[in-house]
Automatic annotation (TrEMBL):
<feature type="binding site">
    <location>
        <position position="281"/>
    </location>
    <ligand>
        <name>Mn(2+) 2</name>
    </ligand>
</feature>
<dbReference type="InterPro" id="IPR043472">
    <property type="entry name" value="Macro_dom-like"/>
</dbReference>
<protein>
    <recommendedName>
        <fullName>Probable cytosol aminopeptidase</fullName>
        <ecNumber>3.4.11.1</ecNumber>
        <ecNumber>3.4.11.10</ecNumber>
    </recommendedName>
</protein>
<feature type="binding site">
    <location>
        <position position="342"/>
    </location>
    <ligand>
        <name>Mn(2+) 2</name>
    </ligand>
</feature>
<keyword id="KW-0464">Manganese</keyword>
<keyword id="KW-0479">Metal-binding</keyword>
<feature type="binding site">
    <location>
        <position position="263"/>
    </location>
    <ligand>
        <name>Mn(2+) 1</name>
    </ligand>
</feature>
<keyword id="KW-0645">Protease</keyword>
<feature type="active site">
    <location>
        <position position="270"/>
    </location>
</feature>
<feature type="binding site">
    <location>
        <position position="263"/>
    </location>
    <ligand>
        <name>Mn(2+) 2</name>
    </ligand>
</feature>
<feature type="binding site">
    <location>
        <position position="342"/>
    </location>
    <ligand>
        <name>Mn(2+) 1</name>
    </ligand>
</feature>
<dbReference type="InterPro" id="IPR008283">
    <property type="entry name" value="Peptidase_M17_N"/>
</dbReference>
<comment type="function">
    <text>Presumably involved in the processing and regular turnover of intracellular proteins. Catalyzes the removal of unsubstituted N-terminal amino acids from various peptides.</text>
</comment>
<dbReference type="Pfam" id="PF00883">
    <property type="entry name" value="Peptidase_M17"/>
</dbReference>
<keyword id="KW-0963">Cytoplasm</keyword>
<dbReference type="InterPro" id="IPR000819">
    <property type="entry name" value="Peptidase_M17_C"/>
</dbReference>
<dbReference type="GO" id="GO:0005737">
    <property type="term" value="C:cytoplasm"/>
</dbReference>
Amino acid sequence: MSSLALADTNPASLSADAVVVGLYQSADGAPTLAPGAAELDAAFEHRLIDTLVLLGATGAVGEVTRLASLGTVPAPLVAAVGLGIREAADDESVRRAAGAAVRALAGSATVALALPALRPAAEGAALGGYRFTRYRAGAATDRAPVTKIQLVVPDAKDKAAKAELKRAAALADAATFTRDCVNTPGNDLRPPAFADAVSKAATKAGLAVEVLDEKALRKGGYGGILAVGLGSAQPPRLVRLAYSPRGKATAKIALVGKGITFDTGGLSIKPAKGMWEMKSDMAGAAAVAGAMLAIAALKPKVEVVAYLPMAENMPSGSAYRPGDVVTMYSGTKVEVLNTDAEGRMVLADAIARACEDGPDYLFETSTLTGGQVTSLGNRIGGVMGSESLHERVRAAGDRVGEPMWPMPLPEEIAKLMTSDVADLSQVASGMDRSGHMLQGGYFLSRFVADGVDWAHLDVAGPAYHESEEYGYLPKGATAVPLRTLVELVVDVADNG
């Protein structure tokens, strides 16, 4: 990941490979320079905007226009990045602009950003510079990612500025860990290896770690996790991570994330087209693990315990079958109709266990259903659960640029999920896919203890982008909703 640093040097005097300034879009005229560009403009004898317009700059969000300085300033390259219309520009506009600029300037060792809003600029720049090249022999011939990012501020010694940079760096480091896990192919990140990777990173961060192997899972009665893992040669795991603040905690939060390291659909096998993306079916667990790493670095005054159920859903002679009845950790007996609805099985066990810790809030996230993509697309996650948390989750997502949309859990969904042979059906009877995303949310609700405020974040679309990159989000793993989870934890710590 690119390193972050503060600089209070005049941007026109910085010895960087490139200096980036912001550009506002105008609805009825030429674009205008954003705050932070005045000194650079003066060095160009106030002709910077005219030159950028000649090069085609409009100020649209994420648009990057590059200009050779030809010795006018020490930096050989000046870049202007669009922030959109001034009145509509917000923190997310700055994040996307910074990410786009750093990605466009790959090959430059040091890039200085003179943009408004320090933390969004730092977050966007660090997140936007990410690349996953572990398996690419030719990666050395590509333009190298930016190694150092300088954020231009009035005073580099200012405590508030340092705190903003620290938080941005913690989130970017955590997102890098999450993205690396999700991007790693299924043959190299099966459940035991995933558990080991999380345990190593969490231990280094100072978190308490407990890993339940298949023997401990059997002894503990984790029927859902075990059932999903039956078809794989690599047994399942349940990882517990715990963070405790110094002094009195203001609240206790549980985080749960789905960790299916590869999902073939089991005996209800998926079509071949697109199945390669199922290495990302552990994105929820990876995001929760990353969130815990960031929490350990930021040290909020709240207790946080995370549960990461990990399994590989494979077809084999030992795999669980449609028609099986599984006794879950909670004692609930579930009739399985579709082995491809495995995520809710492992999550139900983890949620029930997490509730035993007595949390005030429980936030669970998963790439749970294709219904989320059908309903909300690839960039907006669905939120279900306690209505008291709907707006809190939505607002947290908006603040960090990870949009979420509240969805209902109507009574008719509950009626669909009755079983003639067990306490609960895993999916709707007859495989009725109406309200498919809501079915997953309702199923999980049956395993949440009374009195626990909870939210289920279905991020099947936003967590992994196969075909596009935009702003600070790369192709492949995005780390959504890591930053939303951290924002929620900090919000609870500060406001209860």
